[in-house]
């Protein structure tokens, strides 16, 4: 199913890309200045020396990140962590990881590029036995010489086939079970299972998958997702956040509310249903599920709405 989606989308994608906006004023590739914040699981106590050679460069139509540890050899595995968005929004960034491959004395990996003018923040972590962490760098693909995306933009934000690490419970008490994948998927092999324990009226789950550049650069018009309350009923409310978890936070709820039952329900949320929200600064999306006691809710196939036409539309 996923292969079919990709094949069909590739046929359509080349004629659907918008005109590129003005180039960023950032340097092509440079260390990030000022205060930064690493994703959960990393602390600045792990920062180490020996990363002076870390850089991103355009090479053979790819955006390569290279690092030569020098005398202080790195233990395997070495991982490249990256987040597509301008520096900032530190409490709510969508971090991904890629294994780096050692070629001689150099470790390298290719950064996927979907949008030429959106910066990519990245850092490197060492492996077992030498847990070292590099400072952060930011690269603007177009300014390095990359002339076209290395990966076609894909409007599916999460189908949970690779786990649920991009989602978290908000303000969860100790008695709330953790999020986990479920095999009761609407499509594919997995969905997100959100538990509502006995004694609680609502539970909220959030993700940084929805980004402002989806609106400003890819011209997305809204969100679509599938929801279900297996064996029960409930309601879902939706909120977009900008500068989430910071003193500058802005939150606007959608005018749309979903009533759920035991069947999968498709929910479409136009960005206009979040009135007076600064869409270009979006960095967090939450769903509040409410019900009558202990039960579970399922989420699947979060995607962007826009000019795309995909199977099942």
Notes on the protein architecture:
The two termini are 14 Å apart. A hairpin with a 7-residue loop joins β16 and β17. The chain has 313 residues and is mainly β. It is globular, with a radius of gyration of 20 Å. The protein is built from two helices and 20 strands. The model is unreliable at 1-24 (pLDDT under 50). The strands form four sheets. Strands 10, 12, 13, 15, 18 and 20 form a six-stranded antiparallel beta sheet that branches. The protein has a five-stranded antiparallel beta sheet with strand order 1-9-8-4-5, with no helix packed on it.
List keywords for this structure.
313 residues; 6-stranded antiparallel sheet; 5-stranded antiparallel sheet; 2 helices; 20 strands; 5% helix
Summarize the structure.
The chain is mainly β.
Instruction: Please report the distance between the alpha carbons of the first and last residues.
Output: 14 Å
The SS-based structural class is mainly beta
Computed Rg: 20 Å
- Record field, number of beta strands: 20
The overall pLDDT average reads 88
What series of H and E elements makes up the topology?
A: HEEEEEEEEEEEEEEHEEEEEE
